[in-house]
Structure formats: C-alpha cells, structure tokens
C-alpha cells in the first residue's frame, strides 16, 4: 500500500520537547519525520546518531558498534553525553522530537533534569502501541535510504523504483540489526529496560497512547491530535 500524503497543519512552532516511546518497528522514525515538518524542530534519533558515528569510525562509534550489532543498549553515560551535546546546539533552542531516547529510567530522570535546566516544561510523550506480532514483519521488511535515511517497507510503503529512494535516488539498504535474531534481542531489551518508562511518564501525566497499527497517515493524524490535547 502506498503512503498517503501527510495531513497538513498550520500549527505555529511551539517550544517543547516531544518524546516518541514505542518498541522497535512501532513507527517512531517514520512518524518523527512527519511531525518535525509540522513542528519545525529537529528530529533527534539516538539510533541515527550512533549509526553516523559508526560510519565515521569515531571513538563513540567504535564503542557503540558491537552493542548495536547485538541489539543491546549503549551505556547511559555515553548516550546521555551525546544527547546533552546535541540539545545544546542552536537549532534545538525551540524544542526537538526525540526518537529512541530515553530508553532507561536513568536516561528519563536525567533528561527531566536537563529539560528543567534548559527551561523546558514537561515533555509530551507519544507512546505508539503496536501488537508484538506486527513488529517482526515490519522490521524484516524495512529498507532505509543510504543517503537521506528515508524509511520504506517492501510491502506497506514500497519505493516507486525497487531498491532506490524516491527522494534522492539513494540505494535502499537492509539495516544490519534488522536480522531476525537481533530483532528478537532488541525486543527483549525493550521489554526489560524501556517498557517501564510508559508507567513512569503516565504517572507524570505526560503520556498519550496512540494506536500505531493503523495506516501511516492515520497514525500521523492521531499523533498531531494527541499533541494538541497535551500541550506541554
Ligand atoms: P534505533 O535506531 O532507535 O532503533 P529502534 O528503537 O529499534 O527503532 P527502529 O528504528 O527499529 O523502529 P521505529 O520505531 O523507528 O520504526 P520505523 O519508523 O523505522 O536504535 C538502534 C540501536 O541503537 C539500539 O538497538 C541500541 O543499540 C542503540 N540505541 C539507540 N538509542 C539508544 C538509547 N537511548 N540508549 C541506548 N542505546 C540506544 O518503522 C518500521 C517499519 O515499519 C518501516 O519499514 C516502516 O515503513 C513500517 N511502518 C511504520 N509505521 C507503519 C504503519 N503505520 N503501517 C505500515 N507500516 C509501517
């Protein structure tokens, strides 16, 4: 099924921190890319930051590489240092959309302190809920543009020309951690370390559940409606 065009919105830029919470394959990356077009703030994916560091063979990338290959989380001190530097950049002054961060209770607590220090209110946490059975199918069928990072699915959101990105013609690749045995470990890490964050943010009144099992554009609409319902 081809993706419908994203819903339009005249929403003015708002100073806020938005967090996408959800298991691997729930659509965090896909939906973050749509939301930042409306909110006009940067999309901060910690997974993308690690992959960029791995590609550039930086010391941080060398430390993270074996962990990503096994589907395990990168230690909190490395992740938090990278995030703190990123949100201090001028383009993040009015807010940002986090995709894949925080992922542990310690990361969430440290993020709350960081946000408070930088004068942000409570984050808006969008929790994408997808039945586990769908996640494996979504991840094994995912293809990502090697140039711009555009996300496709071989059945659900295929490119016009097989293997090539519609936006920049880049080669579409299968992420090395999208092999079934690594996906299973990523899902287990999510259950062990990240799922408890849903309760943590729910208790703070910061979380909205959104059904992520619907078609892409319907999920985008639901997320935008959830943000309007929960201004930070
Ligand atoms: P990361 O890159 O964050 O991966 P992830 O959380 O496992 O999430 P994914 O990118 O796999 O899935 P997604 O939810 O973005 O789904 P997508 O939109 O692509 O992290 C990778 C690694 O980095 C981690 O394992 C860890 O090692 C490390 N790391 C990152 N952050 C860290 C942190 N904070 N702390 C420690 N370590 C960290 O969609 C998936 C597929 O489904 C696509 O093909 C898409 O087209 C399709 N799809 C999406 N929505 C729909 C829909 N509604 N209908 C049909 N198809 C859909």
Describe it for me?
45% of the residues lie in helices and 15% in strands. Helix 1 packs across helix 9, helix 2 crosses helix 3 and helix 4 packs parallel to helix 5. The protein is globular and about 45 Å long. By secondary structure, it is an alpha/beta fold. Strands 2-3-1-4-8 form a five-stranded parallel beta sheet, sandwiched between helices. Strand 5 and strand 6 form a beta hairpin. The N terminus is likely disordered.
Task: Based on the model shown, name its key terms.
alpha/beta; binds BIS(adenosine)-5'-pentaphosphate; 232 residues; 8 strands; single chain; disordered N terminus; 3-stranded antiparallel sheet
What binds here, in terms of ligands, is: BIS(adenosine)-5'-pentaphosphate
Helix and strand composition category:
alpha/beta
Distance from first to last alpha carbon = 35 Å
- Content of β-strand: 5-15%
Radius of gyration: 17 Å
Q: How are helices and strands ordered from N to C?
A: EHEHHHEHEHEEEHHEH
Number of helices: 9
- Chain-averaged pLDDT: 92
Adjacency order of strands in the biggest sheet: 2-3-1-4-8
* Helicity range: 40-55%
Low-confidence stretches: 1-13
Give the biggest beta sheet. 5 strands, parallel
Shape: globular
What is the total tally of β strands? 8
